[in-house]
Amino acid sequence: MNPVRRRLPRRERFAGLSFNRMLPNLMTLLGLCIGLSAIRLGMDGRFGDAVIAIAVSGVIDGLDGRLARLLKATSRFGAEFDSLADFLCFGVAPALLLYMWSLEPWGAIGFLPPLMYASAMALRLARFNAALDTAPKAAFAYNFFTGVPAPAAAGLALFPLFLGLEADQNHMLWLREMVAYPLFTGAVLAVVAVLCVSTLPVWSFKNFKIPTSGILPLLGGVVVVAALIFADPYLAGALMGVAYTVMLPFSLRSYRRLAKEAEARRAAAGPVEGGYDSAKVE
After folding, report:
1. 200 and 269 in contact (C-beta within 8 Å)?
2. DSSP character at residue 213
3. For 115-148, b where at least 16 C-beta lie within 10 A, e where not — what string?
4. I need a surface site. Which of 31, 110, 190, 208 has the fewest CB within 10 A?
5. Residue (of 198, 102, 199, 222) closest to 159 by Cα position
6. How far apart are CA 234 and CA 133, in angstroms?
7. Among 80, 90, 78, CA closest to 53
8. How far is CA 272 from CA 166, 263, 278, 279, in A?
């Protein structure tokens, strides 16, 4: 006869989050550290390294959200943490860099444009977080940001610094003096601040569909842009800022066209009882 086995107490599983669910927040933290390091590099006078650090933070910011959705690790904590990191990396860091590089000789007056830009960035991010709890938007509106997003705004704000660093490399003193003049730098910061808090619809490129005939030209363009970034990153940053600014009117035109088409579909379909209009919400 077999002896009765004594049942051992069951070991409790370790409680906590998996590494996969923490990975997006870890990437956000890495981007935050790199953005903060950009400020230290600017204080040491290494403005070229500082703008590259902000650019790396922008790449990380574009990846962490997509990684969170891919791993199904999205959370309200992650959204709030990402916004705080964006405020530091793309609001405070560019403002301080431009103040130290160009605006400091004007003293308190020179500090006004960085203050305006950083405040506008905080308001924009607060509006974005508040919109998470609002009613669903129209389906086509999910392809647009309201106002210029934080990483793009940082790139536009750093346009004078990109040109100044390019001028330093090529010994173009006239260009260096022109773009580093406090009035020019301050005007750029003020304009970008207005774009941040505006209601201008801007393409988000999240669901941007490329026709089959345009795939190869797009890949070729990416190769050209990558080669330019590695060959001359400061010129590449300035050119991308110009290209993004030129894109804004086309984004507005696209939004208005899609809004008219959605309104025409709603008018043709008539009111929908007992639910949402499929043309109105996603």
Report:
1. no
2. G
3. ebbbebbbebbeebeeeeeeeeebbbbebbbbbb
4. 208
5. 102
6. 39
7. 90
8. 58, 14, 9, 10
122-133 residue pLDDT tens:
999 998 888 776
Q: Which of 144, 87, 71, 155 is nearest to 119 (CA)?
A: 87
19-267 in CATH: which number?
1.20.120
Residue 135's pLDDT is: 58
DSSP 29-59: HHHHHHHHHHHHHHHTT-HHHHHHHHHHHHH
DSSP secondary structure letters along 140-208: GGGGEEES--HHHHHHHHTHHHHHHHHHHHTT-HHHHHHHTSHHHHHHHHHHHHHHHHS--EEE--SS-
pLDDT at position 103: 95
Enter the tokens of residue 125.
């991010």
- Spatial distance between the Cα atoms of 226 and 230, rounded to a whole number of angstroms: 6
Give the DSSP letter string of 94-108: HHHHHIIIIIGGGHH
Contact between residue 67 and residue 121 where contact means Cβ atoms under 8 Å apart:
no
Residues of the chain with pLDDT under 70: 1-17, 19, 133, 135-136, 207-208, 270-282
Cα distance between the two ends of the chain = 67
CA dist 151 and 59 (Å) reads 9
Q: Label each residue of 118-155 as H, E or C.
A: HHHHHHHHHHHHHHCCCCCCCHHHHHEEECCCHHHHHH
Whole-angstrom CA distances from 262 to 252, 278, 279 are: 15, 10, 6
